[in-house]
């Protein structure tokens, strides 16, 4: 093919594209009677403040060209028009304004197949329909957090930011919060955040929350040592004399719980705890498995033997020590106050 023929082929390609840009429509708008298809501007839908708007407009118009070019002309178009690198210029485009707006689009095409590169600019008036269908974005600092038992907290403190593609100013304080966290009950919870923009799009986020277990009370009572062993031996000797099986000393949790009871009773001598609850709740707080708990207290005497004797000289306390239903006993003391709970 001669240079003249190549130039003619390139010109035909550009003319073909120009015809496409001036006759085809991306959508099928309703035309008035007597109005030709060429009179109807194509409509391209874009998202408000779309940073890739120019590329999307260019792609849409290329698609229009592709479907409009006759089959016999595609062989001329494909090698000749460098569509990917075409430059685009749009007059009076305002992507921050919702609704339709008419703009003039200018595409500069390069014909790389010609011996002498040809360049032409095609102009097309189009209608851009600017919409807002994107929901606001709620960014959390962490997807899941842990709270201490009965910790005071504000869910909004765990929101990093709120943003929207409309660039509408949104404040964290505007968030709707559904908070079902009960900080006085350990377990797993979820907090739901949501917010709507001016177009009614709703963004949401979910924060996982774990409330930790209630901390076990600190015991200042004595729950181990020779004195505890001595008291256990005195109790089991008395049970042996009565023909009863010995009691085993409670495990670590039971001993910690009785240490709490000894400390409490040292300042408030009662089988009720300072908050008015039953003494067995000390076992509950330490996760002790039990049934039929029976508590005894004594403040009298100065030695382990004196304490034991006082219990055995009291019919009520003696009956607990010699209970046939008990299999275990927790023993502890705080100062002069001794406490024990026999249980199964």
TrEMBL record:
SCP domain segment(s): 232-334
The keyword Signal is annotated on this UniProt entry: yes
Record-linked CDD domains: CAP_bacterial
Keywords, alphabetical: Signal
Keyword Kinase: no
Signal sequence range: 1-24
Pfam families named among the record's database cross-references: CAP
Name of protein: SCP domain-containing protein
Species: Holdemania massiliensis
